[in-house]
Structure formats: structure tokens, C-alpha cells
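Deliverable D5.2: sample structural annotation.
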Amino acid sequence: MVSENADDKSLDKYEKDLAKLGNFEVASCLVKLAEKNSTNSPVLNAGRGNPNWIQTVSRLAFCRLVEFGVQESRRTINGKDLAGYTEKEGMAKRLRSFLSDSPADLFLSKALDYGEVNLGFNGDEFAAELVNGVLGNDYPMPSRVLNCTQTVINHYLASILYAGHDVKKLIDTTQLFPTEGATAAIAYIFNSLKENHLIAPGDKIILNTPIFSPYMAIPQLNDYRLKTIDLKSIESDHWQLKAEAVEALNDSEVKALILVNPSNPGSVALSTPTLEALKDAVKKNPHLMVITDDVYSTFASEFRSVYNVIPYNTLLVYSYSKLYGVTGWRLGVLGINESNVFDELIANLPKRQKEEVDKRYAHDSMDPENMKFIDRIVADSRSIGLYHTAGLSTPQQIMEDLFSLAHLVNIAQGDKDYYIKEACDLVDARYASLNKALGIEDFNNSRNTKYYSLVDVYAIAEKHYGKEFSSWLATHFDRLDFLYKLASRYGVVLMDGVGFGSNRGIVRVSEANLPDAAYPQIGEKVRKLLKDYFEQWKEEK
């Protein structure tokens, strides 16, 4: 570790070494610097996107299901610490008798009603899936997703992600694979695209930057060696795709488009004109594969998923982590339509490649030729040979169930989802207080999630101290110098925008993971550091 008091030469070397690391690894180093900051300020790490709030009723309901499940298990074998197995027949009635009038129990009662009345479930089957799921006493069966769980999550996704026509059709035709967060979904997807010859070294894929750093890193790995084309959205366009950028999608050599919508770190959802432009693009390039990460969708009051617009070409990724405060639970899901371009491309592989992939999946299927791409992803996630033990753990699947049901039960009663509103209000207030301290205007738009802020340090420098100073700041320091000094002097950790594909001088602030009072403090310390640079500039002049 290099201290801030080290000579300039060693400091330059340290910053250059930092620049070789991944974006989140840089942030980890900055945290260590911040812990020993020279002003003894409290560490304010606004680099991570994990929220500092939780949704309560689903967690409490989960605990109640565990308690009931243990009681049920004692009906068959009742030892000291050993209990037996559950019996499905009559379980729904027994569960209802077990429930009291506590908020968690009332929610579970409404959830059972919703499953039976709105989704057409058999009461005992639904209750047994919930109870055995939280107990985790069996492998996931079916291995890809539990039966009732797929239906519940599909209705939840329809409510929060889809708008417009064919919503019911999408509910009925979307196949799901719950995963260990969205990150696992992306890792599984890239691996299966490669194994099924849908991507190969040298293939062109398009990224809409700025974007979540791993999406920039993964295609460059030796595993894939893809050629990435950067569409480079900019703030003045509200992070929308430019017309010339969409034109690039018309190239039949472009195999895939990777999107985060709403964007991370731009935090703005794609507009209707942009979605329509994508719809036109796949008409010209019908074999384009689109992967959309919709993790932040619920924080935008106006949102429509790319999957809702071009379901045939799109693989959907969603995570519960950011909304419900469950980054530690690892709760994600990927979805794909029953009719999709991925299966079409596999069916039309050259004979040699077709024989190769059929042989690969023959271990898991008597009809590997017709094995769906989503089921191939499940098999690949367990290296084929462990396919019989594949699938997200059943307690995790039921936790996804309960979060989904909490939303569905509310809106079925004609209410708003007040939990989502409270979460959105929280990040809105933090976003506004940060901007006020920085002296910049809010971007109040129904597509802006405000979950992250991209702060242009050079623009703030120009606003407060003039263009000549801003130009000096931009040309006299390594791009990480500002973040290094912010951490080592004032204990504030932000993330480098370049690591997300943004320009030099841009830093990302998460409005999710710190107390409300921290955000004006961050703004003040950014301004304070700029003043330090300004004093140095005056001396040099």
C-alpha cells in the first residue's frame, strides 16, 4: 500500500498499477486507502450497488413456513432433534389453521388465496411446494424451476417489466431458470452460447456503454475472445441509442447485443423510440441475439423491457437483489420464450457442429437434438454430468416466490405496491441531496431510476472555477488521481466511470448503500477536493 505522502514517482506507479485492475478491484483498493485517510474522516463507500434496506414481510413469511414445515415433519417421525417427511394431502388446510393474524401470516393466507384463485393452483400442491421448498429437504424438481414457482415469477415479471400487447401470451410462453443472482445467469448464458457454437472467437457483439463492468470484461477473456463494438450512449441523449448506433445492428455479422436496461451506471431506461428502433433492427438482422439485464427496472416509473418488444430474439435476465435488499441471498432468474432465435440457430448449425453438440447433451437427454437452449444452459451450469443435481436451491426459489407474491397480492387488491414506492422515494431523496451538495441540477424523468449518479468532475470544476482550471485538471493527472485523493484524504470511495465504458473524469455514485446523511457529505467532499486542486493550480500559475 502506498501512502499519500509517498513521492510523486511512487504515487504515479501505484495509480498506473491500479488502472490495470478491474473496476471493482480498484474500488476495493480505494476502500483500504479510505480506512487510513489523512483527515480521519468516516469512510463513505458509495462504490457498491447493494441496498441498505430490506423488505420484511416476505422474510418473516419464510420463517413462518419453516416453522410450520418442522411441525408438519414431526407428524411422520418425531424424535428429539430428528423429524420426518411431510405429507401433501390436506397440507393447505393445516397451513391455514396454523396461521395467525400477524402481518406475515395474513400475507401467507392471501398468497395461498392468490395461488388458488388467480393462478389456478391446487391448494395442497402449492402449499407443499412452499413448505418443502423452504425446508430444502430434496433436490429441485423439476431441476430448472419448481412448477408453481415458474408461474408465480412469470406473473411478477409481467407486472413489473411488460407493457403493451401480448402480456398474457408472454406469461404463458416464457420459460424460466432461477439462478444465483443475475451474475450467475450472465456467466451461464455466455458459457452455453459458446458451447452451442452461437458465438465463436472473432465474432462481433455490441455493447451499449456505459455498462456494468463485467459485461466489458467477459467477452475479452480467452474463453470467448469476441470483438466488441461500443455503441457509446451519452448523457446529453439521456443514455438512449443514437440512430447511427442502431444502424450497426443491421450488420448480419453482428451476433449479439448486450444491454442493461435501465442502464448501469447511467440509470435511465430505454425510451419508446429506442425500443421501436430495436424492433426494426431485428427485422433487418433477424438472427440477432439480444441479452437484456433488467435488474433496475422497478426504480423507473416508466419502463418496458426489450423482451416485451422483441421476445423471439431476447434472453431476459432479472434479479431481486437491488429492489428487495437480497444481494446476499443471490436471487436471479433468466427467461426465454418457447419460440426463440437461439433454438433456431442451434437447429441450423452446420452438420459437424450439430453432431458435436448432440453428443454433448446425449448424456442428459434421449433426444438431444430437440433439447431447448434454456435446458442446455441448466445442463451446462452443472458441467453436464451433474445435470441431475442442477437448479437453484429450493429455499432460494421460494424466497423469489414470496417476494413476487408480496407484489402480486398488493396489486390484485387494487393497491399500489407501497414497498416499491418507498424504495424509489428513498433513492430519489438521496439523489437530490447529492446533486444539491454538488451544485448540479436533478434529471427528473420517469425513466431515470436515480439508483446511480454519473458525476462529471470536470464539468463541476468548470462550473465552480472556470474552463481554464477544468482543462488543467483534465490534462495534468492520471485518470484515477481524483479517486485516489478522494479516498486517501477524505475517506470517500467512488467508482471510475472509465471502467464502465464512460469518459475520463466521470465517477459513479451509488444512491443505495449509505445512510441518507452521507450523500450531502459526499458532495461536499468532492467540492472540497476540487478546491484543493484549485489551490494547487493557482500556486503553479
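Annotation notes: The mean pLDDT is 93. The longest helix spans residues 518-540.
The annotation will be released with the project's public dataset once the embargo ends.
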